[in-house]
Design brief:
42% helix; 8 helices; DNA-binding; 210 residues; three-stranded antiparallel sheet; homodimer; seven-stranded mixed sheet
Amino acid sequence: MEQKSIVSMAVVRRLPRYLRHLDELHKIGADKISSTALAARMELTASQVRQDLNCFGCFGQQGYGYNVEFLRQSLADILGLSGPRSAIIIGMGNLGHTLCNNFSFSRCGFSLGAAFDANPAVIGSVVAKIRVLDIKDLDKYCSAHKPDIAVLTLPAAPAPAIAHRLVQNGIKGIWNFTNTDLNETRALVENINFADSLMTLCYRIKTSNL
Amino acid sequence: MEQKSIVSMAVVRRLPRYLRHLDELHKIGADKISSTALAARMELTASQVRQDLNCFGCFGQQGYGYNVEFLRQSLADILGLSGPRSAIIIGMGNLGHTLCNNFSFSRCGFSLGAAFDANPAVIGSVVAKIRVLDIKDLDKYCSAHKPDIAVLTLPAAPAPAIAHRLVQNGIKGIWNFTNTDLNETRALVENINFADSLMTLCYRIKTSNL
DNA sequence: TAGATTGTTAATCGATTAACAATC
DNA sequence: TAGATTGTTAATCGATTAACAATC
């Protein structure tokens, strides 16, 4: 089988982790790795590693294992990290600034084109070479530049309305840092929810006997 | 059944979302909700909602549904959000500052006790009432205050060593924002990985036909 | 009472694990 | 060749969905 028609989310979510571990292996000079060794590193089973990779093709060689550099490049291609898509940030508060300043969008397949905010104090400023525009000009910007995704780092309250407006402007994906669920069926939403994550940790500690 | 002996991670990860939706329902003045209506809101099935909640007890009433306020309080109790546990932050860069300034640890069941960094420029400063201490004093602080969890907002390179040191100091949970996997079996690790999440979105957009 | 909706058991679906022939 | 390890099929396990009796 060359490529599974539809790959499950469970597998997709492991892809960046595989890539990360292959990067690390590359850095320490490993040029091959077996499914058993990779599974041990990642706390998976060897079966799972082979099943996961075989959703996308045959990357290994019997009796040898996987070539680190080849698998690394293959995973980057599968994820689509080289053809950069365009992104905009909505909300230049503390978190928006942090992402502009310290996060590498390019390593994840995106290039950041502009930022938006409603606060006159930040509109017009430039953060890490990104100009902060007035949220009023969002539609105009979208018509002109057709950004692929939007990063939502604004308060939860205005988020659903902004998300809807973005989708109407042709946004394909939303990286949602707001503490609310977005009901946009016409766009792909990827949530990062700090509170949900920490509450989960709270529960896990409470119910463990550590 | 009063309480399932061990609840699956799939269910646990949905708990904060249930709580969030119950909060919203409470805010708009709803005093009851059926599993069908809650499922529609959350894009789940009614069956799943009932199965999920019944892992922890019987919170509904036949012919009526669930009382919003009662279910909300029950979920908060199940998650353990009231008995505040103590947290420390390791790494007061941009992200560490953002969390100190804008994130409500208390809403998630934690109280932030101290922050640590290796950089003399920030050591001794106070951010949102939290004193930034020298990472050299980490062991001393842990012995004295026994923090329950550590928030890792430091670079990936030193993270595994710091995590190990924290576990030796009795840390029970790690909220890991570093872009690396931690192999600490003696502590519960909750990862927030920006790059993994954005790469997943990259893949999903690439493979969708939006 | 009649209608609505839960709690719970059984059925289905999907993901993980095991096994092993193929082959480098 | 012999040993190692993949790709792939089959078996198992777990999670989701469906169904329905209980009951408010």
